[in-house]
């Protein structure tokens, strides 16, 4: 797995980086959470714009991003509009989704944008993954590359954990589209589902040329949020007071767990070579 360095932060090396989400509905709620996050351990702040009451206004969205830059000048900023079908608070048309992300990319106010792999398809788990030349996201990814904004291509399944082969196909499709980081979140129903996700993570980290972010959601999958250094997930999400997905541990506990595990195996990196 290749590493990605953004403003001195290296993804895909050492401890997984910590991302804390902001889920406020109003500007005051957003800024309050940002102020709280400034005192918590983190590397990345994700603004979930789908929770914002004025998400349809590009002007107000860019205003919030600029304000977050002022409050969190040393944090990497991830912009995300999570659609309803992938666990978000609101939904918009494909055209509005693409236009909003284009405005954010052109502003260069965010270091990362999260783009959903299945944008433009009828189902989250489409029978056929979008080919690079057919994806509605291709122009956005190209624009982001030109403006040095990093792209996280993502796929979320809140109903189940697909088979390992399907998980790897999704991550490979993200890489083929030219993402900076490939992200996958799935819901487990039994312990073997968590093992499936971790096995796919390990294989992807060995085979793909981009870093990966993976997680098994809910209480059953919490272990996947803290063992990324061993299995190859480069970033994990914590809870700064309001979770953006089920199973996120609070920021302080997450940081302590990551540091403790790093102390056990971080000085002697685990063998990730194929057996």
Give me a quick take on this structure.
The protein is α/β, with parallel strands linked by helices and 275 residues long. It is 36% helix and 18% strand. The protein contains eight helices and ten strands.
Keywords:
275 residues, alpha/beta, eight-stranded parallel beta sheet, 10 strands, 36% helix
The assembly state of the depicted protein chains is single chain
Strand proportion, as a percent range, falls in 15-25%
Q: Please identify the structural class as seen in this structure.
A: alpha/beta
N-to-C CA distance: 16 Å
The number of distinct helices, counting runs of at least 4 residues, comes to 8
Number of strands: 10
User: Average pLDDT across residues?
Assistant: 91
Question: Unreliable segments (pLDDT under 50, ≥5 consecutive)?
Answer: 268-275
Shape: globular
Helix content: 25-40%
Radius of gyration, Cα only, in angstroms?
A: 17 Å
The major β-sheet equals: 8 strands, parallel
Order of helices and strands: EEEHEHEHEHEHEHEHEH
Task: Characterize the structure shown.
This protein has 275 residues and is an alpha/beta fold. 36% of the residues lie in helices and 18% in strands. The protein has eight helices and ten strands. It has helices at residues 27-37, 58-71, 94-107, 138-147, 164-176, 191-207, 228-231, 251-265; strands spanning 4-6, 9-11, 17-22, 44-48, 76-80, 112-116, 150-157, 181-186, 212-216, 235-237. The chain has an eight-stranded parallel beta sheet. A two-stranded antiparallel sheet has the order 1-2. Strand 3 (17-22), helix 1 and strand 4 (44-48) form a beta-alpha-beta unit. Helix 1 (27-37) packs parallel to helix 2 (58-71), helix 3 (94-107) runs parallel beside helix 4 (138-147) and helix 5 runs parallel beside helix 6 (191-207). The two termini are 16 Å apart. Residues 268-275 have low confidence and may be disordered.
């Amino acid at each position: 797995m290749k590493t990605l360095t953004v403003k001195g932060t290296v993804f895909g090396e050492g401890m997984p980086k910590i991302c804390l989400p902001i889920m406020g509905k109003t500007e005051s709620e957003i800024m309050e959470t940002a102020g709280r996050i400034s005192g918590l351990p983190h590397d990345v702040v994700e603004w979930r714009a789908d929770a914002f009451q004025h998400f349809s206004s590009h002007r107000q969205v860019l205003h919030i991003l600029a304000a977050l830059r002022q409050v969190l000048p040393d944090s990497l900023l991830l912009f995300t509009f999570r659609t309803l079908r992938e666990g978000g608070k609101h939904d918009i048309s494909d055209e509005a989704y693409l236009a909003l992300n284009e405005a954010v990319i052109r502003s260069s106010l965010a270091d990362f944008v999260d783009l959903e792999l299945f944008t433009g398809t009828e189902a989250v788990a489409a029978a056929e993954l979008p080919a690079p030349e057919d994806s509605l996201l291709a122009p956005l990814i190209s624009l982001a590359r030109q403006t040095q904004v990093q792209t996280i291509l993502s796929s979320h399944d809140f109903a189940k954990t697909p088979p390992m082969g399907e998980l790897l196909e999704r991550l490979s499709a993200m890489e083929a589209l030219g993402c900076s980081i490939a992200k996958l979140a799935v819901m487990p129903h039994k312990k073997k589902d968590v093992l499936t996700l971790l096995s796919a993570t390990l294989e992807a980290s060995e085979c793909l040329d981009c870093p990966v972010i993976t997680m098994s959601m809910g209480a059953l999958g919490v272990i996947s949020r803290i063992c990324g250094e061993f299995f190859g997930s480069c970033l994990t999400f914590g809870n700064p007071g309001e979770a953006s997905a089920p199973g996120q541990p609070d920021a302080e506990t997450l940081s302590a767990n990551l540091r403790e595990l790093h102390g056990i195996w971080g000085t002697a990196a685990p063998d990730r070579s194929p057996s």
